[in-house]
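hey team, just a heads up i'm posting the complex here instead of the shared drive bc the drive is being weird again. everything in one block, sequence lines first with there labels, then the predicted structure for the whole assembly after. its two chains so it's a bit long, scroll down
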Amino acid sequence: MSKQIIVPFGPQHPVLPEPIHLDLVLEDERVIDVIPSIGYIHRGFEKLVEKREFTDYVYIAERTCGICSFVHGATYCQGIEQIMKIDVPERAEYLRVIWSEYSRLHSHLLWLGLFADSFGFENLFMNAWKIREDILDVMEQTTGGRVIQGSCKVGGVRRDISNEKLDAMAKDLDRIDRDMKELTTVFLQDSSIQHRLRNVGVISRDDAYHLGAVGPTARGSGVAIDTRKLGYGAYDRLNVPVVTDSCGDCYSRCAVRARELFTSTDLIRQAVKKIPDGPIDVKVTGVPDGEYFMRAEQPRGELVHYLKGNGTKFLVRSRIRTPTLTNIPPLIKMLQGCELADVPVIVLSIDPCISCTER
Amino acid sequence: MIMDTQTTTGIDVGKLIGSVERFRNEGYRLVQIGCTKVGEQYEVNYSFDKDYHFENIRITIAGDTEVPSISGMYWSAFAYENEMHDLFGIQVRGMNIDFKGTFIRTAVRYPFSQPPVTVTKGDKP
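-- predicted structure starts here --
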């Protein structure tokens, strides 16, 4: 048996946008075991729920993540609305879906760029982020913010989008679809990318399911879990296809995200077609008294906001379970047995978001 | 608004392993383990899902109660159990990976077991 050595990976590493540390146990160039370590940027957001009124806490919830901030805000609001039995106007539900899917487009394009960068394809990185700019422009035009939107509130949304603007957005998606088609064709058909990603970081369907994988990490192994199927917001009135792939390797996880770009644009078109006229919010009276586990599909997978109120304007508990936290154990499984040179690509393949994870 | 049905069943800490084993045998996946401080006690929620059916079991314990780890049945539970220890100070027995309090680095020891923040008139938010 070769001598075992431990190589620290992270918390600072060229492919890591955020700090996570992995102790890699190696025999020659092969990874035998992995011990993860997080906690470099724990902010204690959840504790703030004790001194922020429940209507204000949406701003804190949104700041959990700088990529899927809208989804965090919407999930928090939907959880409170469940506890308080608030019926949100239908137009607000559709607007939430539209902004959520734009967030998914933004997140997946950002990830595709970073992923291309991790395997040394700089030009592809720039092309992915060029398209992402168009998505961010729409977010800014419709909400006022590129990163933190601030457009969701308990009882509905703060801003409306005119029907003319919605039609223009849907029309512009045709051009974005063409650009994304060109981009994803390279990701999915280029022989050098396939050579780099095929059979790397493989996790079986059973392992992915039992280790708690969610989102594209699970769907890349053939586990057809997509929380949008619960029908929250306006998703129950839209056709939501669940994109899966069966190989469970880095290529499959990339393929799932690439194909989900087009399901997101399709969902936005469906929502624009069906969105009714009407109010965008309702007046909220009373205080939350009860608890709810609100689940939603963030770009990285299932997000859980557990909220508990005690009949005052301050919640007792907000517990945010992010998809990256639950994708770390499957990541360990993917890394066991891989080559050291493949570690950066495999880590990136779960789309880790540490600021989300540590809250 | 269509939402999933959620059930929460309170159990004694002594029945935790048996209850979790049932979920494991029935093919549920572990969604999360989360802790809430209620007064001087702690509620620990274990959430499971199968085919979008969400079930939750809850133990209510004192701060010095030792909780058995479920990482023997759900390997991924170590992330939640270490988090529960580092943020709330709950002792978990038999974790498959025990970080001994270093999984989440915090400036204050067991910050979520501290008394709730009280807001008085005149405090800045």
